[in-house]
Each structure stands twice: as structure tokens, then as C-alpha cells.
Amino acid sequence: MAGSRPRWEIVYDDLRREIDQEKLCPGDRVPTELDLAARYGFSRATIRTAITRLEQDGLITGGAGSLGRHVRRRELISWNLTKFELGAYVDDPVNFVDQWEADAHSEGWNTRQVVAGVAELAAPDQVALYLGCKPGTRLIRRRRLRYISKPEVPEQLAMIADTWTPVDIARLEIDGVAPLMEESSVVYPGGIYRALGFRQVRYEDDIQARMPTPEEADLLAVQPGTPVGQHARVGVDASGRRVRVLISVFAGDRQRLRYTLDVPSQRPAADKIPEA
Q1: Between these two residues, 147 and 90, which has the higher pLDDT value?
Q2: Torsion angle defined by CA atoms of residues 232, 238, 243 and 248, in that order, rounded to the nearest 10 degrees
Q3: Could you give the C-alpha distances from 110 to 103, 113, 198, 219, in angstroms and in order?
Q4: Is the pLDDT of residue 66 over 60?
Q5: Is the Cβ–Cβ distance between 119 and 233 less than 8 Å?
Q6: For residue range 202-240, what is the model confidence (pLDDT) as tens digits?
Q7: I need a surface site. Which of 76, 78, 80, 175 has the fewest CB within 10 A?
Q8: What kind of architecture, by CATH, is found in domain 77-258?
Q9: What's the CA gap between 118 and 186, in Å, rounded?
Q10: Fold type of domain 2-56
Q11: 90 vs 138, more confident
């Protein structure tokens, strides 16, 4: 029954409809709690519940005081994983543009990458599983923070990209430099691992949605209650060794992952579905 609906849902549904129909456009200021309380004749506590839910849904910004809340821009960042690391782009060592940046540039984004640290750490359970080693094994983690912007979109952190590598591989040098230990952007044609002599012949992707850690929530500036996406890509070389795993974490409401998969004209017999 409509009369049994919680009052906050009435406010929430009305504001959400205005946002969806762009009567409230990205960047527009949301009416204040006081104004909404007067409009609906509800208490400010009721209004606050509706506003909080809109924040949790990622539709409006958090805000207080004179700044207020605004409708969030919802332009998604597209990441084409069919092309990523599969030779569709050539890394540019002169301009320090890697394949992720080339993909973002093709979507009209400006990019900036920061190597936020290189450290020898004990392998967390999940990382150990990806690399086929024991939890606690010493690995090198190289963290990159990937920022994007457009003239109409202020710079924001798009992705936390952690590359985990066995220590013996990470410390290999090219012309006296261990590129995986460098705390600055390093780009080689074909990628660092190929330059080090590791030809990755297979990638294994693992994608999940989860709630962020406090550190991830802070870095990505996600709204309370917003999940993050995690894409892990394990690189396997010709000998079958798992030479690295790249774990990329991004705000779940700001990123879109794209794949294009060719379907063979005739599937192998093992793929056939047995008849009932």
C-alpha cells in the first residue's frame, strides 16, 4: 500500500526521478535539507535519510555547510580489456605512454600516472593463490596510481594498479637498471616483462566486486556503501611460470570493463552440451 511507504522513500524516489530525467543535471546543487523539509512537510531526520541513501547510491556528492551537495557526474571510464596487453597498442617509451594510457587517450581522457611505491612484502593469501606460491612468500609490489581528467571533469583517481612479482624477476636489470624496482614510470616497447626476457603466452583474468578496504576507499574517494571492482590478470610464460599478477582496483560506479570475444564457427566437442 502506498500509504505504508516510509516517508524517506517518497523523497528519495522523487529526487532520483529528477536526476534520472536530468531535471537535476550533473553539477547542479541539490536542495538543502531545510528546503526539502519545507517542501514535503517532513522532519529533517526523514530528509537526511533520503539524502544519505542518494549519497550511498553514488548519485550525489557528500557535503555540508555552504558547499552543499551536488549531482555527481556519471561519465564512465571505459577499459577495453580485449586490447589491453594484447598487442593492440605499442608502448611509447619516449613519451612514457603505456597501454592503459593509450586506451584512455582513445576514449578522450587525459592521464597521469604516479608510482606510489615499490616494496618487498609478504604475499597476501589471494596474491599467493594467483601466483601459485605459499602465503607469506616474499614478493615485490609496485603500486601505480592512475589518474584521469577531461576539461569538464576534474582530475580523479581512476585506478589503483598493484603489480606483484617474484623477487628474482623484479630485481633483474636492463642496462644496469631494474625497471620493476623503479619508483618512476618506466616504459619499454612490448612491455617490461618482455624486455626482461619473459614472453607471457597466457593471461588468466579474475574479476570480482567487493567492498573497499579503508585505504582504497580513501584513495578512490568512493561514496559510503559504494563497492569497488577488482580485475586481476596473471601472466604465465612459455615455461608455465606465473611471472606476475596485476591487480587493478577501481570505483564500481565509475568504470566499465569491455571485452570482445570471437565465437568459433564450430566449437570443440568438449564444449557440447549433452542432450537431456
Answers
A1: 147
A2: -20
A3: 11, 11, 31, 19
A4: no
A5: no
A6: 999 999 999 999 999 999 988 777 899 999 999 999 999
A7: 175
A8: 3-Layer(aba) Sandwich (3.40)
A9: 13
A10: Arc Repressor Mutant, subunit A (1.10.10)
A11: 138
What residue spans define the domains of the chain?
2-56, 77-258
Say which DSSP state 238 is in. T
**Per-residue pLDDT tens over the stretch 100-142:** 888 888 888 999 999 999 999 999 999 999 999 999 999 999 9
Q: What number of CA atoms fall less than 13 Å from residue 259's CA on the CB side?
A: 6
> Measured between alpha carbons, how far is 104 from 78 in angstroms, rounded to an integer?
8
**What are the backbone angles phi and psi of residue 61, rounded to the nearest 5°?**
-80, 160
| Spatial separation of the C-alpha atoms in residues 130 and 122, rounded to whole Å | 14
Task: Using alpha carbons only, give the angle 247, 125, 144 rounded to the nearest 5 degrees.
Answer: 25
CB 207 within 8 A of CB 230: yes
Give the containing element (helix H, strand E) for 104. Answer: helix 99-106
- Close Cβ partners of 102 (under 8 Å, ≥ 6 residues apart): 89, 91, 92
Q: Is the dihedral of CA 109, 110, 116, 117 positive or negative?
A: positive
Q: What per-residue string of b and e applies to 156-170 under the rule 16 or more CB within 10 Å gives b?
A: ebbbbbbbbbbeebb
Question: What is the distance between the alpha carbons of residues 120 and 137, in angstroms, rounded to a whole number?
Answer: 10
